[in-house]
Cell division protein FtsX (Candidatus Nitricoxidivorans perseverans), 305 residues
Amino acid sequence: MTAWLFQHWRALRLALSRLAASPVNTALSVVAIGIATSLPAGGWMLLDNAVKLARSAPAASQMPQISVFVALSADRKAAGEIEAWLRKREGVASVRFVPREDTLARMRTAEGLSDVLDALPGNPFPDAFVVAPADDRPERMEALAAEFRKLPKVDHVQLDSAWARRLDALLKLGRTGVLMLALLLGAGLVAITFNIIRLQVLSRQAEVEVSRLLGATDAFIRRPFVWFGALLGLLGGLAAWLIVAAATLWLAGPVGELARLYDWSLALNPPGAADTAILLGTATLLGWIGALLSLRQALREDAGS
C-alpha cells in the first residue's frame, strides 16, 4: 500500500512539473477547458435562478392549490376533523377553511345569482378547504390529491396545477437543453485532453521506449500522464467556476435593479459548495477519461510498432 501511494505521489509531482514546464500551453488549455465547462455550469445556474424568478414573479400568485370539498351531509365536527388531519399531513404548506356560508354570501353578490339562490330550499355550497402544497411538482400534487379523495366525508377534490405544469414543462425543456450542451461540451473536453496527452506521449517517445526497455509496466508509464490529464481537468473546472462566479457578480447589479423595479425577490447567487464539488469532480473525471483513452491508443500503437 505504501509503495502504491509513493508511486502515485511521484507521478503527481511529475505531472505538476510538466504542467509548470510549459505555462503558456497549460494556461491556454485550461482556458479552453474552462470556457467549455462554464457554459453548461452557467446554464444550470441560470435555470436555478429562473425557478426563483418564477416563484417571485406576479404569475406566482397563481400558485397551485388543491381544493377539498366536504360532503353536504357532513357537519362542522367532521369538517374540523378533516382540517386537523390536513394540517398534520406532511407535504402541506398551508390550509385555509372556506365555510359554506361565506361561499353563499359571495355568490349572492354575483350578478343574476341572487334570485336563483333565493329560490333554492337551502345552501347548495359545501364547506371547503384550500390546501397549498409544500412541493408544487405535478406528480407530488397528484399524489396528495389522490390521498385527499380517500378521506371520509370528502365529496370532491379539485387540483389546480396548470401553473405548476407549465413551469415544470419549461424547466424540463431547460434541463434537457443544458444536459445536451453538457454532454456535447463534455465530449469536447475529453477530446481536448485526448489530443494534449497524445502530444505529451509523442514528445516523450524516447523516454517511454527507455522505460519499456528497463521493464516498466504500462501502468507505471501511464500514471504521470493520467495525473496530468486529471489535473488539467481540475484546473479547467476551477477556471469554469471563476468564469461563472465572475459572470454572477457582473450581472448581480443589473438583475437586482430589475428585481426592485418589478418587486421581485430575486438575487443571483454564485455556485454553492455542492455545485462547485460536482463541477470540479466532473471536470477532473473527464480529464482523467480523456487521458486514459489517449494513453490506451498511444501505448497500443507503440507496442505494435
